[in-house]
Amino acid sequence: MKTGKSLRSAAWFGSADKDGFIHRSWMRGYPEDVFDGRPVIGICNTWSELTPCNAHFRELAERVKRGVWEAGGFPLEFPVMSLGETNIRPTAMLFRNLVSMDVEESIRANPIDGVVLLCGCDKTVPSLIMGAASCDLPTLVVSGGPMLNGKFRNTMIGSGTDVWRFSEDARAGILSLPEFREAEVCMSRSAGHCMSMGTASSMACMVEALGLGLPQNAAIPAPDSRRLTLAHLAGRRIVEMVHEDLRMSRILTRQAFENAIRVNGAIGGSTNVVLHSLAIAGRIEVDLSLHDWDVLGRDVATVVDLMPSGRFLMEDFYYAGGLPAILRLLGENGLLHRDALTVNGKTIWENVQHAANWNSEVIRPVDNPVAAHGGITVLRGNLAPDGAVIKPSAASPHLLRHRGRAVAFDSIEHYRQRIADPELDVDENSILVLKNCGPCGYPGMPEVGNMGLPPGILRRGIRDMVRISDARMSGTAYGTVILHVTPEAAVGGPLALVRDGDWIEVDVEARKLHLDVSDEELAARRSAWKKPEQRMKGGYQGLYVDRVMQADRGADFDFLVGCRGADIPRESH
Ligand code: FES
Ligand code: MG
Question: Which of 1, 7, 125, 272 maximizes the CB count within 10 A of its CB?
């Protein structure tokens, strides 16, 4: 079906001169009529064997293409750098902004009228959405879906979550090495991304909550045939979206972000979503701050009983009703902007108003939640003037108000060196403080904030202590872990000044994070402070450290904030 108005791609494929010849001739192997002005759909694929969570994406892309062809579009798949959480060092987060540039420039530079983003593993989601948002074409996201539940000796085990648990048990001497190894193949046993409510699952829920994906995008397991159908339907729908000129900016409104923040509270979602949402909002020019996260998330009860906050996994969540059931629940409790528009052209409420909850263990009733005050809490104080975050639903209630003495580590290497030292002056009331692991510090803000406990304490059966850092933690992790302390230590934030033995006060209810050291003493320490040596100068890492913003701005590059649109660039020949 041709549209009345000429599309962006016509500037490449529509001309009769030498340029049109060049653009068409080199495409090879397509019938002539695909260049008749029909919507050209770019399928942005993060397939890679080095990103095992996205390794099934070739088939997904083929299904999207079927839908695009059926609807009268012309699908063209293109690769971008893929970020696999488990293999990329020093951390996939270092490259999120790089990939977003890859995506943005690939879309703008090519004859593309609409985009389908194929994402799965953690950073593949925000990087693609950020890049596409800076272009603002009609865009639809298809998530790759979670793995099937892990099964180990007839018990359910969750991605990541049980790695931390097994690792602590092994260090405490209650799990043998052969058992630890056996668990590996039991955890990851099908295609898909982490199936606990880690960052990938949380971001897949965000895709659906923001209205960027079709209903049930978040939870259909990767190997379930309905995932293929969803991809097929997405292909059909993106062609219509181009005809309707339904751009990202009409979907990604302030209301959509508010819905997403509340959903993250209800699902017990990852702390990483905070960073990614701020970065995405910056690209589409929606005013969103860390403060919004605290205010909007504060009263949302966590009702989805999934690891790491709860008991079940994404497969169970899908069978229980998936995200539509949560959106309906929020809508019925006055916590959803019902008019927010979604990619299928309907409002979010039209999509979910009849959604069912088939399992009240997995999706619990509001009056019997996993945590009454879910969401993400933003702490402030002289230790984190620009904020820090904690996920109370994954923390120990008795530590949410705590005063303890710091055991401070200058780097992750320093931590590794000292943590098993029997001479280390530490007990379960101590607070482990890790510095220089923020955006500039590591660089890339790695997921090391949930430092393992000292072995002597683990052997006594203790499994949680307060931990504070400028790092992130895996969305699959748990514990009383305060993260994203801003400004970070490497740029001279107060975290850099903490010393062993300092008293620190945490009061999550009061939103407080206080270093109990006098201003005079802190000033003296500041004048003695030396900026840590940058590990790699020049290259991408040099650019990263020069231009990355702090966590309260989503750790995007300062020069990437904003929507630059998709005006047609100058001709190439
Ligand atoms: Fe890919 Fe967790 S490692 S989603
Ligand atoms: Mg992760």
Answer: 125
Query: 176 and 98 share a domain?
Result: no
The model carries a pTM of 0.97
Where does the pLDDT of residue 7 fall: very low under 50, low under 70, confident under 90, or very high at 90 and above? Answer: very high
The total number of structural domains in the chain stands at: 4
Ligand 1 in contact with 85 (CB < 6 A)? yes
Position 28 pLDDT exceeds 50: yes
**Based on the domain organization, do 452 and 504 belong to the same domain?**
yes
Measured CA to CA in angstroms, residue 103 lies from 46, 56, 282 at distances of 10, 20, 16
* Ligand 1 centroid from CA 542, angstroms: 27
- Tokens standing for 453? 């406990």
The CB of 123 under 6 Å from ligand 1? The reply is no
Asked if residue 559 is part of any domain, the answer here is no
Q: Is there a domain that residue 567 lies in?
A: no
pLDDT band, residue 2 (cuts 50/70/90)? very low
How many other C-beta atoms can be found within 10 angstroms of the C-beta atom of residue 471?
31
Element (H, E) at 41: strand 40-45
- CATH at 49: 3.40.50.2300
Tell whether 571 is covered by a domain. Answer: no
d(CA 338, CA 340): 6
pLDDT-above-70 percentage for the chain: 99
Query: 179-186: long-range contacts (C-beta < 8 A, 24 or more apart)?
Result: 182/152, 183/152, 183/157, 186/150, 186/151, 186/152, 186/153, 186/157
Q: Are residues 20 and 70 in the same domain?
A: no
Q: Are residues 98 and 196 in the same domain?
A: yes
Q: State whether 170 and 204 are in the same domain.
A: no
Provide the domain limits for residue 33.
Answer: 1-37
Q: What is the ipTM of this complex?
A: 0.92
What lies within 8 Å, CB to CB, of 297 at 6+ separation is 261, 262, 264, 265, 374, 375, 376, 377
Interval between CA 133 and ligand 2 midpoint (Å): 23
Q: Which of 335, 352, 369 is the last residue of a domain?
A: 352
pLDDT digits (tens, 9 = 90+) for 504-528: 999 999 999 999 999 999 999 999 9
Question: Are 139 and 160 within one domain?
Answer: no
193 lines ligand 1 (CB under 6 A): yes
For residues 202 and 328, membership in a common domain is answered with: yes
For residue 389, the CA-to-ligand 1 centroid distance in Å is 22
| Residue 366 resides in a domain | no
Q: Which atom of ligand 1 is nearest to the CA of 200?
A: 4
* % of the chain at pLDDT higher than 90: 94
What pLDDT does 4 receive? 57
Q: To test the ligand 1 pocket, which listed residue (46, 50, 86) has its Cβ within 8 A of the most ligand atoms?
A: 86
Task: Give yes or no for residue 1 having a pLDDT over 50.
Answer: no
Pair (336, 442) in one structural domain: no
